[in-house]
Amino acid sequence: MRGWRRGLGTAMRLILAGLLFLAILDMLAGVFLRYVVTAITDYFDWPGVSFFWAEELGEFALAWLTLLGAAVAILERTHFSLAVLTHRFPPRLQRAIERVNYLLIAGFGGLAAFYGWRLCQLNSTLTSPGLDINLAWLYAAALAGGLLMVLYGLALATGLLHARQSLDEVQ
């Protein structure tokens, strides 16, 4: 049972790393095309090179990176939390509050997934101007991230998965 949990986390981290690498390469290509290639083509009076696709690719990568990363951050316990009062409660009550928190996260993920699905349907006939990609792919990031938030939130609330311990809990 533990192997699939680790495999799921590793797969998501690899996907996020790939998206981050894609976004970095895209930004570098966009800057190079805008400032270097454009200057060269202007100097020699050559036809210009279109680089408008770079911005769209970056937007797609950023949307997917953000929404998938938000889901993975639930497992990693890297979302902001403020424990002003709860650390004074008995451990059993702390665990109950934590489970309610994960259920609220799952509910938020459900809303994100629902509206992501609605946006996918609404924009399924539109394409992006630079890449000519169906815009439903952009809004599918909200659907995928929301579904992962639901999955992780419910799994953590029921105890099927366990979040990574924070440094305070380890010491």
Give an account of the 3D structure.
The radius of gyration is 21 Å and the shape is elongated. The protein is 74% helix and 0% strand. The protein has 171 residues and is mainly α. It has one domain.
Helix content range of the residues, please? over 70%
Query: Helix-strand pattern, N to C?
Result: HHHHH
| Mean of residue pLDDT values | 89
Number of strands: 0
Strand fraction: under 5%
Number of helices: 5
Strand and helix layout:
Blueprint: H1 2-44, H2 52-76, H3 91-122, H4 136-158, H5 167-170
Helix pairs in contact: 1-2, 2-4, 3-4
Could you write a compact summary of the structure shown?
This protein has one domain (2-80, 90-170). It contains 5 helices and no strands.
Keywords:
171 residues; mainly alpha; single chain
